[in-house]
Amino acid sequence: MKLRLNYLLLLMISSLLMIGCTNKHITKKKPNILFISIDDLRPEMSSYDNSIAVTPTLDKLSKQGTQFNRAYCQQAICSPSRASLMTGARPETINVIENYTYFRDENPDIITLPQHFKENGYTTINVGKVYHGKYNDPEKSWSMKPDKKLIKNTLKGLIGGYVNPKNQKIFKANKAAMIKKYGAEAKYGLGLGPAFECEDVADNRYLDGYNTDLAIANLKKMITESPDQPFFMGLGYISPHLNFVAPKKYWDLYDPEDIKLAENNTAPENGASMGLHASFELRVRSNIPNKGDIPDTLAHKLKHSYLATSSYVDAQIGKVLSFLKEEGVLDNTIVMVWSDHGFHLGEMGVWGKATNYEIATRVPLIVWSPFQNENNRGQASDALVELVDMYPTLCELADIPQPNHLEGQSFKALLDQPKLKWKEAVFSQFPTPALREWAANPLSKGMRETYFGPLIEEVEEGIKDQMKEEWDRALFENDIMGYSMRTKDYRIIIWKDRKNKDKAPLFVELYDHINDPKETKNIAEQKPELVAELTAQFEKGWKGNLPVQ
Ligand SMILES: [Ca+2]
């Protein structure tokens, strides 16, 4: 009897052990997520649009993963775009339509992307700019801060982002003068140094190189100390955002002779006067004229510097991916690379972001997953997708539930079927670009007095001429929103009073992407039926333009 009991006990223990083994086998470790943001990068990579950009890392990632050729941001400015994609909700839903509103103040209980992963068993860690500036949601989104003691501080002596003492001196003098004049207001972009810098220094003397070292050191620590713990790393690069600073070796990748200036350098024919700004963000830099044309030699230099900073970022991403590969961790890591919005480099006569047009709203977006169907790797997708779709996509890829508040659509299916019939339209928006700062807030007194008084007067005259009796200074600066919808063949921009959405639009723009991909001619007046059709489609909103399941 005793023997029999022992036998039964043994049987029970071995069954339990087997269940344990089986469970261990079934509960495979969740995939890590490497979520990489690049600030202000339009699809300026050689894998996109035949650019001359030297971006081997991102090109390779595109060839081995899925590149999205038609990905769009929700608003072409840092904080609204990032707050939207990180919360998975659209700019007006979270009430963030300019750079100075903190999404958490407006939405105390919203569950962000990293927060959701944290609540689903992930270690979430942030290095660099993923959210905008200080609106970083430290308590809720991230489970730990990166350990800065793991690496040497190679940023010592960097002032205003510059290595060169002459540039530092200009920056300090301009900043001090503006603070003296305008006090705290000066910190919002008044008093800056040169727009670019090229110095023969190591990668980590500038912020993005330093953050790369910091990311790798912290990844190493996490992988070593908790190999079974899945991580979500938000890794944010500030290049190629102004100022365009990068080590000389990245400038040397380009022969200036190969760099061409924008061809379409005038405003769209019959376009909205309120739709374009006077390149404020660039003009506050010390080596850029406050008004008038940007001379060709300077434009050339600016394009060179944008390319150099893009290559600099590409090289940093390469270091992180190589590290994960060497550690054997890449095989269980999903990589998503995105930019928060596009950028005009002289197109439409504008430098900067902050418009509703294709050049400012279209972004690079690449996903690489170790679990993708091998046959479909490297097949770019032309499906219309939005940055707000990244949150649900990552949930689906990691097999965790999607919170109910999300306003995007997972595009996981496109990784294996890139030609699948997808969204009918995607949506962006921007409040009156002509009369606001590049941060999308109304122009401050300092900006008006110091730089933009005459420019604004000129712009205002243009809007008055176009809008006639509809012109109302307060309405146009504060409450007009340009709602932009992109379909496969068209872009329509509907300019409305956002506080009276039922009222008829104040102005409509229509661009035909089959015949005019650079959006040089507004054809809304010639195509009233098409405008009516597209307006009806616009009224259905994002929910009415989702893929049919
Ligand atoms: Ca940005």
TrEMBL record:
Protein name listed in UniProt: Iduronate-2-sulfatase
InterPro entries named among the record's database cross-references: Alkaline_phosphatase_core_sf, IDS, Sulfatase_CS, Sulfatase_N
Record keywords: Calcium, Hydrolase, Metal-binding, Signal
Residue span(s) of domain Sulfatase N-terminal: 31-400
Pfam family, one: Sulfatase
GO MF annotations in UniProt: iduronate-2-sulfatase activity; metal ion binding
Cofactor (UniProt): Ca(2+)
The organism's taxonomic lineage, starting at the top: Bacteria, Pseudomonadati, Bacteroidota, Cytophagia, Cytophagales
Domain of life: Bacteria
UniProt source species: Flammeovirga pacifica
Family designation: Belongs to the sulfatase family.
GO CC term, one of those recorded: cytoplasm
Keyword Translocase among UniProt keywords: no
Keyword Hydrolase: yes
